[in-house]
Amino acid sequence: MSIPGATVPRVLLVEDDRTLADMVAGLLTDEGYQVRTAYHGQAGLHHGLTEQFDVLIIDRALPVLEGLELLRTLRDRAVITPALLLTARGTVADRVEGLDSGAEDYLVKPFEVPEFLARVRALRRRHLTTATSLPIGARRLDPATRTVADPTGVVPEVVLSARECALLTTLARSPRQVFTRDQLLDFVFDRADTVGTVDTYVHYLRRKLGRGAIDTVRGLGYRLGVG
Question: Is this structure's pTM higher than 0.90?
Fold first, then answer.
């Protein structure tokens, strides 16, 4: 039963078996979730980077972009939404590989519906308790909403793009660490990008947040500034 005024939890389901996808989406919809379905990994990546979700459900054997690579890419882009991997591969090595790729849970097909729904509920609770903000000087970064806000309300809220948020989140999670351009390129951006892309997005963030948001450490790289 939905609560008046409550936000409907959103699930991204990435599953290439359309019959199974329709069944799972129906189960989740009946439980009160809003479901976005993608039938291959590249579509899942697009939705994962451009929309906000409470839970990710990803099949491992996906066309175009394999499930583990999809999940690794989302994690590299600072998407921290809890993820459940669905797969027909259930060996210990398979489960370890899935968890090491960034999944919070791993369920082998075929699965029992009550257990599946219970695992989704557990991930939803985890999202509610772990979606914390990060300090950016006197302001706070919320990676889930890609916003930087002033707790006092004096400075207007700033909305970031997916790449801007991924870069700022990486710096904010290790505020004392100096990151080289190569490290930030590897952690945040596509393999086809160049180190100049890092400089470009640092410029974008400084333009939105002020020059003090990111410090340049000459000869080394960048670290989080004081705001």
Answer: no
Q: Residue 53 and residue 104: Cα distance in Å, rounded?
A: 15
Closest CA to 53 of 32, 80, 22: 80
> pLDDT, tens digit, for every residue of 69-127?
999 998 877 677 899 999 888 778 888 888 888 888 999 999 999 999 999 998 887 76
Buried b or exposed e, range 170-181, using 16+ CB within 10 angstroms: bbbeeeeebbeb
**φ, ψ at 18 (rounded to 5°):** -65, -35
Q: What's the CA gap between 183 and 85, in Å, rounded?
A: 28
pLDDT in tens, 187-199: 787 666 788 999 9
CA distance 213 to 180: 17
